[in-house]
DNA sequence: AATCCATTTGCACGCGCGTGCAAAATTTGC
DNA sequence: GCAAATTTTGCACGCGCGTGCAAATGGATT
């Protein structure tokens, strides 16, 4: 099954007639080694089925090239997209990914501990439950030098945030909604625990208040889960008279928007966008489906992932926060 | 930032006034150690911020408690569900997950190599591109003892398959469709490369041929991607006269089914289930949404994940293949 | 042919922890 | 209170590779 026992660099060295260090060099991209030595080594390695042991390498060099990805919010389809992009870019650049499912809110600490034990070089957070106090508590046993919050802005010190500019983005959306002539917006927000949602919600509300002098209705959903979102929206709207209904639901993200659309159509008997328009955020694959054609906002995920790798490679320690600018994706839903 | 420099077990031992080996024992569940020694050690560790180094432990013990999860098929929402279940169960049992995005078909070998370098204890395949020849070629540099194909049956030797019984499942579906009175089924299959789809498709076709003496129409989609599925279904059905249309689309999985439903409704102007019924497979979250209410088949994922952990823990080497039985989830779409 | 410079190769030591067994400490039985 | 049974503790060696520098090799120049 496994090729022989444990073939080490020493074995390959003997087979190739060179020293072990030459073997090591042959396996590094940027090492100074003659072409023919490398060829000899590679052939010997191939013959023996040698595979370098990254555990030992990491132990000796104190760099693991491993990154922990902490995820909690598996109900949001956007997570799948993010995971794909991140792992793709990172793997191309030589970074491996340790996927840690943060089971529940109290599990953030243990999850970070888990990552520490593997001596990852960095931890990337793409969930939502990471309130600042939980993080602070978890800093304790921290054995990695970089804590990166991806696709979510964070003001926490010792933390690098790579995200879209929520304020800018939400202003764009608000302006678009405004320009389309909608006048009775209704904001569907995510869990209160997450700090990003505050930014989006407040930005929208502020905009509307300044522009039209009134505060839009608002509702909170306990998770970025379409089903939950639908339930909350139904409760909020079902008893309203037709004239009291909003003319557009501005949703904090696509997961919420999709749940809302389903409820509007199938529970409340309304047409989208005929009776009520809907906007989202993220541009998940479903947003482009025939059924939803959701007007939403696309984050420049590729750029953000590229920058993430830059951060990983960098030796710097501060001021690496960065905000990106995305763009509205205009479809039929609003 | 990181707590001090590298605190090792030696440091903790000194602090606690015991030997390093007592420290080691304190951190293992099943070690023979007195309660008060453990308490002393734990307090010292806490004071110093000590976190055991799993790289070193793994190197010394030749067990990594790390499992590589190879995924390629990120367009299928079901993958998110599987990843959540697997990582949840595995983490609870002390197994960490290395997520490897198999970038494309030719990348299977390099991806396996990647896992080998981390000396994972096992590799779990939950993608679809793993044809037997690619796998065979990749066996070469194999440094892990277990290759597990999850949620897909495989006859390959040296491979452990944990999956639902496709034949049984598809017979159940066929019988259901039959019993509901549908008479002009149309099968929507996934990529030809995957071996599981053959089983489902052939089982359905065989059933229909034996029961009704005729071979249902059939179409292949190049990936488990709703958008692609929709396109293929549209091409296949758009020129048919109303009377020639099938009365039920039996889809190899939910991703295909959802794409099909969208196309039926929004391109072909048909009602689902009014004009054409649809069945899926997997019971992804969307299947339960108001919009789809998809009749589908649920795999017992939790049971399967539990068994997976059993396999990981086991020292056995053969005959660990296992088929599970799921159940039809009956909703409105058929 | 002698010299110099650039390139290539070799190596001692340490990274942090597990394994298996023997010695020491503690408990039990009477 | 003593011997035997049991639990608890200590340790030498090795897991496989990187680091940084010194020695050696090869090629180019005069």
From TrEMBL, chains A, B:
Pfam family name, one: Peripla_BP_3
GO molecular function: DNA-binding transcription factor activity; transcription cis-regulatory region binding
UniProt entry keywords in alphabetical sequence: DNA-binding, Transcription, Transcription regulation
Domain HTH lacI-type positions: 7-61
InterPro entries assigned to the protein according to its UniProt record, in alphabetical order: HTH_LacI, LacI/GalR-like_sensor, Lambda_DNA-bd_dom_sf, Peripla_BP_I
Matching PANTHER family: HTH-TYPE TRANSCRIPTIONAL REGULATOR GALS, LACI-RELATED TRANSCRIPTIONAL REPRESSOR
Protein name: LacI family DNA-binding transcriptional regulator
Originating organism: Mangrovicoccus algicola
């Amino acid at each position: 099954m496994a090729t022989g026992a444990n073939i080490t660099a020493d074995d390959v060295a003997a087979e190739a007639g060179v020293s072990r260090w030459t073997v090591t060099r042959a396996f590094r991209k940027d090492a100074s080694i003659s072409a023919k030595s490398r060829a000899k080594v590679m052939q010997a390695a191939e013959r023996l089925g040698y595979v370098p042991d990254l555990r030992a390498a990491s132990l000796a060099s104190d760099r693991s090239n491993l990154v922990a990805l902490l995820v909690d919010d598996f109900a949001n389809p956007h997570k799948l997209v993010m995971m794909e992009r991140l792992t793709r870019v990172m793997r191309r650049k030589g970074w491996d990914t340790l996927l840690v499912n943060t089971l529940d809110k109290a599990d953030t600490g243990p999850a970070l501990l888990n990552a520490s034990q593997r001596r990852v070089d960095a931890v990337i957070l793409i969930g939502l439950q990471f309130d600042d106090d939980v993080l602070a508590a978890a800093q304790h046993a921290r054995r990695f030098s970089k804590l990166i919050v991806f696709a979510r802005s964070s003001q926490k010190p010792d933390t690098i945030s790579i995200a879209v500019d929520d304020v800018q983005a939400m202003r764009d959306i608000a302006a678009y909604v405004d320009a389309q002539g909608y006048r009775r917006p209704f904001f569907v927000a995510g869990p209160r625990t997450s700090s990003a949602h505050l930014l989006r919600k407040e930005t929208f509300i502020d905009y509307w208040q300044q522009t039209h002098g009134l505060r839009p209705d608002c509702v909170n959903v306990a998770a970025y889960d379409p089903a939950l979102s639908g339930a909350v929206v139904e409760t909020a709207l079902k008893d309203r008279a037709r004239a009291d209904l909003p003319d557009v639901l501005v949703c904090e993200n696509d997961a919420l928007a999709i749940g809302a659309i389903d409820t509007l159509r199938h529970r409340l008997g309304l047409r989208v966008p005929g009776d009520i328009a809907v906007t989202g955020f993220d541009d998940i694959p479903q947003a482009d489906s025939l059924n939803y054609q959701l007007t939403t906002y696309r984050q420049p995920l590729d750029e953000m992932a590229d920058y993430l790798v830059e951060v990983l490679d960098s030796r710097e320690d501060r001021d690496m926060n960065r905000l990106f600018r995305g763009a509205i994706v205009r479809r039929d839903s609003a």
